[in-house]
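WARN no homologs supplied; continuing
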Amino acid sequence: MEEKTYDVIIIGAGPAGLTAGLYAARGGLSALAIERITPGGQLAQTDKVENYPGFPQGAEGWQLAYDMQMQAESFGLEIATDDIVSVDFTAEPKKLVAASGNVYYARSVVIASGARPRKLGTPGEGELAGKGVSYCATCDGNFFRGKDVAVVGGGNTAAGDAIYLARICSKVYLVHRRDELRATKVYHDRLAETGNVEFVWNSVSQRIEPNENGTVGALVVTDKNTGVERTLDCSAVFVAVGTEPNTDFLAGAVELDEAGYVVSDESGRTSAPGVFAAGDVRTKALRQVVTAVSDGAQAAENAAEYLAL
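OK structure emitted
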C-alpha cells in the first residue's frame, strides 16, 4: 500500500474506535480506523441495546453500530480491514504492522481493539466449537430455533442471551456458578416474565458431550454444594462468561494490568507518549457502549492536544 502518515490511527472500530474517529476527523485530523473483522465490534452482535441514551424503545445493536460508522465516515474517517500484529510506539512516526504485510504510520494512536469472549475451558468445548458451541447468541441462535439450549454465565450478557434465546428456542437452561445472577435488575425482571428459562444454580460446567452426529448433545454440570452431576440435554451451549482483552499484539509496547487490559488514566493516556486507550480494552470498572463512546471522545481530543504540542 502507498505509505502515508496519519495524524491518528485507531486500532479497532467498535463504539470507542468509531467515536474516536468521528471526533478526530471532525476536528480536522487525518484519521484511519483499522478493524480486523467488520466495524461495530461486539455492539454489532448485540440483539438490543436498552441503556444507550436517546433510544426510549431501545436500539438494535447492528443498526446503532452502522449509524456510528456512517456518521464517522461522513466527516472523513477512513476504515481499513486489517489485523495489527505488532507495533513500535517508540518510532517516529509510530509504526503498526498488519498480518497482511501492510505497514501503517501515525503521529498518534488510539488503542480501541476491544475484548473477545472468554472460553469456558471445558472438555469438548474446542472440539464442538461451531458445532453447537457458540459465543454469540444473536449470531447463531436462529440455527437452534425450537430446540433446547444452554447458556453459561451470570452477568448481563448471559441474561440477555437467555432472554433472546427464550423467544426462539423451546427451552433455555441458564447455568450459573452462584445462587443469583450478577446481571442488573432489569434483566431479572425480564427473565421472570419468561416461562421457558430454567435456572441451574450453583453449577459449574464439567464437559460438553457430542451426539451421534458429532454436534452438541448435552452439557454436563456439577452442583458445587452437593457434588452431584446433572446432564442437560441440549443442542447448543452459548458461552457468556466474560471477556479477554485484544492486546496480544502490544507485546510490552504499553503498560498492561495483570489481566492484560491497557492501563490508562481517565483521559485515555497510556504509558507510551502519544498513545491512548479507549473502550473495553482498557482497565476500567464499567464496560458499556456509553462508556466506550465517552472513552473514544476523550482519547481523540487528547490525541489532538498531543499533536498540537
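The helical segments are 15-26, 61-74, 137-140, 156-166, 185-192, 289-308.
OK
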